[in-house]
Amino acid sequence: MQLTGAQALIKSLEQEGVDTIFGLPGGAILPVYDPLIDSTIRHILVRHEQGAGHMAEGYALATGRPGVAMVTSGPGATNIVTPIGNAHMDSTPLVVITGQVATGSIGTDAFQECDITGITMGITKHNFLVQSAQEIPRAVAAAFHLATTGRPGPVLIDVPKDVTQSMMDWWYPTSIEELDLPGYRPEVALDDGAVERAVALIAASERPVLYVGGGTLKSHAHKELLAFAERTNMPVVTTLMARGAFPDSHIQHLGMPGMHGMYSAVTAIQRCDLLISLGARFDDRVTGKISAFAAGAKVIHVDIDKAEFNKVRRADVSIRSNVAAVLRSLDDQGASPRNLDQWWRDIDSWREQYPLVYETPSDEGPLRPQHVIEAIAKASAPGTIVAAGVGQHQMWASQFWKFDEPGTWVNSGGAGTMGFGVPAAIGAKVGRPDRTVWCIDGDGCFQMTAQELVTARSEGVPIKVAILNNAYLGMVRQWQEMFYDERYSEVYLNADLPDYVMWAESMGCVGLRARNLQEMHEVIERANQINDVPVVIDFRTDSSEKVFPMVAAGASNDDIMVHPLQRGAAQ
User: Contact 114/71 with Cβ under 8 angstroms?
Assistant: First the structure.
């Protein structure tokens, strides 16, 4: 069967089971948009290419399937670089297709020419510049294989315009060997010797901690984690990228570790004698001063990516495998620590002494952001998906919303990309239309990508957006207050400009506002009654509120600062 390269590209995506593409057409990619009309694949027309990438990320994080985005050459391609970098940092499976100028024009500075494969070389697992229409099926099949196996990540396919217009004889790879990926061996046999050494360390431990990272979710190991943790009675901490991997409601869960983690989680890591890292990469936001991080602990490091071993913290035992396989093996070996009664007494005393707290909200306002999140969570059904931008609101959402299942927390971790929340929430809702999706956003983040609510409205994607409007770039303000002598340089945004209610309404959404507790409860109830169009709520929150606990950048986790309300207690 003879097809054009464009037809082959769409047919290849269909072969991979793609049901949704997020994109924006332009000259170089235009030939591919023609056969898309006859495809079963749904196309979501975004208002900016960055939105396409973040929607694809949200889709992937909520569904576990790779997200797909398609944009044109030049600025279309460069506009999606930030989502690609974000997906690379967070190991999110993404396939991005970019148009390119005709092969004969490459290198001539042609209109909208851009070396996007060169630009993204350091932030993709791999990228392809397709040279002929006959190679399109192989490139697509390889891209999906690379994006979803081993450590997941983004893969880019750059397709010149003349290639999409050329003819080819249809075929599709039926084996891994046909993908022509020399040296790529994502799956490795489990090292029995390493597992035995890990079992011995566990047997000798009296104060172990399961340090759970995003790789646990990527390997779909939440059931194995729950079984292993319950059998061994070990305490569990889940990083920002692993929220939902272990139920927040479980008695063994200590919460999130790190710069804005729970006191009990941070302190348990600092005092443990064995740290079992499951798909975590010892990020600086978790470790603080690395020389002081869990200084007295032995370390077992489990990861699919051997590049993570000894990169930040030297491990006593490194096990290269997916987390699920290792946990099953440890269970088969009967790995179990010593009696943990005293360890749990210590942990419970920290939990009792230093829970999450905030000032009692006033009836008149302004609202406490933590209270707003708790109120939304209380009014939401189990399994509600929460997307967040980046900043204070992100930390509060992770702290005060309880996540009990995978795929319910969608956020930007490693890259810390402001503007992620709204488009990611849209992607999550497209992927999981059966779930309610809330975006917890800040006024700074919202202003970066709010135009994608036009996409949500026109495409019938009814997300709900809570703007914690404190009129500042809140996290930057917090640092300036604490570390720059309250010199507030360029962080004030203005609570009333823009008018978020009018802006929401102009985009076809329902706009609501809450200034006090009564209005807060009323607008949350109203938002939950609206399920056919997007809803945006402007919550007027206290600009002086700060995120606690906190470990200052570069400081030891032993120097964790608790909320001022708790400062009177001896730490």
Answer: no
Q: Is 392 in a helix, a strand, or coil? A: helix
Domain boundaries, the chain: 2-179, 192-353, 369-540
Pick from 423, 404, 34: which is nearest to 250 by CA? 404
Question: CA nearest 238: which of 272, 271, 262, 220?
Answer: 262
C-alpha angle with apex 165: 160 to 171, nearest 5 degrees? 95
Phi, psi (degrees; rounded to nearest 5) at 518: -65, -45
Cβ atoms of 540 and 366 closer than 8 Å:
yes
Distance (Å, whole) CA 210 – CA 231: 13
Measured distance between the N- and C-terminal CA atoms of the chain, rounded to whole angstroms: 73
Specify the 3-state DSSP secondary structure of 340. coil
What are the pLDDT tens digits along the chain (571 aa)?
A: 999 999 999 999 999 999 999 999 999 999 999 999 999 999 999 999 999 999 999 999 999 999 999 999 999 999 999 999 999 999 999 999 999 999 999 999 999 999 999 999 999 999 999 999 999 999 999 999 999 999 999 999 999 999 999 999 999 999 999 998 998 989 889 999 999 999 999 999 999 999 999 999 999 999 999 999 999 999 999 999 999 999 999 999 999 999 999 999 999 999 999 999 999 999 999 999 999 999 999 999 999 999 999 999 999 999 999 999 999 999 999 999 999 999 999 999 999 999 999 999 999 889 999 999 999 999 999 999 999 999 999 999 999 999 999 999 999 999 999 999 999 999 999 999 999 999 999 999 999 999 999 999 999 999 999 999 999 999 999 999 999 999 999 999 999 999 999 999 999 999 999 999 999 999 999 999 999 999 999 999 999 999 999 999 999 999 999 999 998 754 4
Query: Do residues 198 and 317 touch, judged by C-beta distance below 8 A?
Result: yes
Pairing of β 167-169 and β 2-4: antiparallel
Q: Which helix (H) or strand (E) holds 510?
A: strand 510-514
Residues with active-site annotation: 49, 111-112, 161, 475
Whether 333 contacts 360, CB under 8 Å: no
| Other beta carbons within 10 Å of 43 | 18
Unique residue bearing structure tokens 């597992």: 195
Q: CATH assignment of 192-353?
A: 3.40.50.1220
Other Cβ atoms closer than 10 A to 531: 10
Cα distances (Å, whole numbers) of residue 367 to 464, 512, 539, 550: 19, 15, 7, 21
- CATH fold of 369-540 reads Rossmann fold (3.40.50)
Find out whether 9 and 160 touch, Cβ atoms under 8 Å.
no
Closest CA to 384 of 323, 438, 343, 426: 438
At 218, which amino acid appears? Answer: K
Q: Does CATH number 3.40.50.970 belong to domain 2-179? A: yes
Q: State yes or no: cis peptide before 366, omega within 30 of 0.
A: yes
Pairing of strands 154-160, 126-129: parallel
Q: Can you spell out the DSSP letters for 290-303? A: GGGTTTT-EEEEEE
- Give yes or no for a contact between 409 and 245, defined as CB atoms under 8 angstroms apart: no
Name residues whose C-beta falls within 8 Å of residue 45's C-beta, 6 or more positions apart in sequence.
23, 24, 455, 458, 459
